[in-house]
Amino acid sequence: MTLDNVAMDEVLAVVREAVRTRRPCTIATPNLNFVVRAASDPAFRASILRSDLSLVDGMPLVWAGRWFGVPVKGRLTGADLFERLRRSRDPAERLDVYLFGGPDGIARLAADRLNAEGGGLRCVGYRSPGYGSVEAISHPDIIREINASGADFLLVALGAEKGQSWIERNRAALEVPVVSHLGAVINFTAGTVRRAPVRVQRAGLEWAWRIYREPALWRRYLSDGSAALAMLARTSWNAGMARLPFPRGSGAVLSAVEVVEGEREVVIRIDGDWRAPGLGPLRAALQAQAGSSKCLSLDLGAATGLDSAAVALLTLLRQARLDAGRGWHVTGVSPRLSRLCRSYGADDLID
């Protein structure tokens, strides 16, 4: 799973630009539960990869990033994003929102609250679709209703997997520029569920507050926590093994990327150690070839290292190629590089 290391102001700018240009922008909000599910559900994982933004929504992800030396800017939840938009008092920044999901009656309560406060979000429509299948709640009449509302922001609240699946199924037909599954946000807005106090959020204990307020959640949190600890142990081992010193005399190869284009195939050769500050040439090469109709071959035979940002780039390229139904394969993966990719949870990148 890839995450965007962004700050709130950057996300707000993306949202407002998407609304201004009516450009589609899907925002995912991965937390620990998302990560655990994505590890065993390829379709769910792909839905996160296809999102335009993936926010770091859980403190365990912030802690894990810092554990592995990734300078995460901090936790940025979907609830925080919604509240920042909601608190705006500038009429020029007001956005129209459509609420889709939540228990019966909750969406209406949330809509009434938003419209009564006259803040940065005005509700122009809502629907609680019930507990039918994704197919059943994707009826063309429902999509037409959402589009006819003229909303700028579509808040989906159907449960993580179902919500992501619904967005995947209907995104092409939706005319709302910004779409995000925000789960409990609809309940927070309606006032039926109280969010943790700020000091509890800052301490990274919002999960404990949720259990306190909704005791039935303890089983899910226990299951997710156990799975996450196992993933952390496995990832730490792989990362440690991948970072062992190179054999004596192997030398370090300067970072370089070469594109060799043939009649039917494009080969991208990646040499050396690639890290976030110097990814510009690699990013440019991958973007230039992402839409090629030819088979794409990624040669990692001379690659000595990839940090999380580099692995994320390759993962996104792979997903784009698969979505387009175009050829893709990887060659020259050393055992060391294989362990490194696995340490970042990118097993399918090299399999």
Automatic annotation (TrEMBL):
Domain STAS: 255-351
Protein name: N-acetylglucosaminyldiphosphoundecaprenol N-acetyl-beta-D-mannosaminyltransferase
Superkingdom field: Bacteria
CDD domains with a match to the protein in the record: Glyco_transf_WecG_TagA, STAS_anti-anti-sigma_factors
Matching Pfam families: Glyco_tran_WecG, STAS_2
NCBIfam families associated with the record: wecG_tagA_cpsF
Organism: Methylorubrum rhodinum
Enzyme class: transferase
InterPro entries xref list: MlaB-like_STAS, STAS_dom, STAS_dom_sf, WecG_TagA_CpsF
Molecular-function GO term, any one: N-acetylglucosaminyldiphosphoundecaprenol N-acetyl-beta-D-mannosaminyltransferase activity
UniProt keyword annotations, A-Z: Glycosyltransferase, Transferase
Record-listed E.C. numbers: 2.4.1.187
